[in-house]
Design goal:
Layout (H helix, E strand, L loop, with lengths): L1 E5 L6 E5 L5 E4 L2 H7 L4 E7 L3 E5 L3 E6 L5 E6 L6 E6 L6 E5 L13 E3 L21
Parallel strand pairs: 3-10
Antiparallel strand pairs: 1-2, 2-5, 3-4, 4-9, 6-7, 7-8, 8-9
Length: 134
Amino acid sequence: MHVDGQCHCGNIRYEAQADPSRVAICHCTDCQVLTGSPYRVSVVVPASDFRLLAGEPTFYVKTAESGNRRAHAFCPVCGTPVFARPDSDTPQTFTLRIGGLAQRASLPPRRRIWCRSAVDWSLDIGALPASAQQ
């Protein structure tokens, strides 16, 4: 499926071919801290199917529990997380953040990972009162 996205201010714009079956929720503590949220939703795409259309992201490189280094891209203007990739000159994949994709409503998560780190209350929010706006 063709997807396109951008950061909040529009400085960074990109497009890719994404397989909807690869959308996942990550509950790892790194994702919790890096998003300021109890989890992150993302989709992995092959590097050959990703194209940066505008802007130059800023990168923060973190070392995962496995020892792998991941470069996290974000907009230097508005701070929106855009994608992550292996810290390499020739990454094989890009992990796109679902929130920045125009097609996010069509990309429901298909699996959850790092559930041992999940914040218990984040696993079942369906019963909470909901309103259309603030």
